[in-house]
Write a structure and sequence with these properties.
Number of strands of chain A: 11
Number of strands of chain B: 10
Number of helices of chain B: 0
Number of helices of chain A: 0
Distance between the termini of chain B: 33 Å
Shape of chain B: globular
Shape of chain A: globular
Helix content of chain B: under 10%
Largest interface: A-B, 24 and 25 residues
Oligomer: heterodimer
Largest sheet of chain A: 6 strands, mixed
Largest sheet of chain B: 6 strands, mixed
């Protein structure tokens, strides 16, 4: 039972354009969401998070949008840079547990 | 140390052998997590330690898997009688507080032949 889903395994975007990575979840108890970035042979690193009391959180080039009614969140990267090429994971947790549930990841490639 | 340290970085073992994976979290981090990532898959939750509370073992796939943590420091993940399907990258993460941002180690690549 995949509670956090990233339906696009890969995405290719030209440098300077916007990258939009999507994530859907099924558990209505999830109230805290995070995005992590992973380079090969390294552990994931935290990018940005959002609480369910908000619908948007912005940090520099990265913005996360949360649509609770649709159980959907997205990560926007603008402008995209070649160094953004990595696998991106969304993750979620519910208020009654500290366990983070991760999606399957989306591989982003930013080409010149 | 400055980050989460995992050892070994690579482990090749024969089917049926036991393996022990080690994680040194960031000093002062009370929460510690183990995840695994099989080839082409997402991060699969295994176990979570928070302070002196009983660990959340709900993600351990079978009774061949166990983990311990000494206080708020080192953790070891033990896999007994390894099977080929145990081959994966095992990732450890720590956090300063419950529901805090996780800091991951580089992982242990386990290959069971």
């Amino acid at each position: 039972d995949q509670q956090v889903k990233q339906n696009s395994p890969s995405l290719s975007v030209q440098e300077g354009r916007i990258s939009i990575l999507n994530c859907d979840y099924t558990n209505s108890m999830f109230d805290y969401f995070l995005w992590y970035k992973k380079y090969p042979a390294e552990g994931p690193t935290f990018l940005i998070s959002i609480s369910s009391i908000k619908d948007k959180n912005e940090d520099g080039r990265f913005t996360v949008f949360l649509n609770k009614s649709a159980k959907h969140l997205s990560l926007h990267i603008v402008p995209s840079q070649p160094g953004d090429s990595a696998v991106y994971f969304c993750a979620a947790s519910a208020g009654n547990t500290d366990k983070l549930i991760f999606g399957t990841g989306t591989r982003l490639q930013v080409f010149p | 140390g400055a980050g989460v340290s995992q050892s070994p970085s690579n482990k090749v073992t024969e089917k049926g052998k036991d393996v022990e994976l080690r994680c040194d979290p960031i000093s002062g981090h009370t929460a510690l997590y183990w995840y695994r990532q099989r080839l082409g898959q997402g991060l699969e939750f295994l176990i979570y330690f928070q302070g002196n509370s009983a660990p959340d073992k709900s993600g351990l796939p079978s009774d061949r898997f166990s983990a311990e943590r000494t206080g708020e420091s080192v953790s070891t993940l033990t896999i007994q009688r390894t099977q080929q399907e145990d081959s994966a990258v095992y990732l450890c993460a720590s956090s300063q507080m419950a529901r805090g941002r996780l800091f991951f180690g580089s992982g242990t690549q386990l290959s069971v032949l």
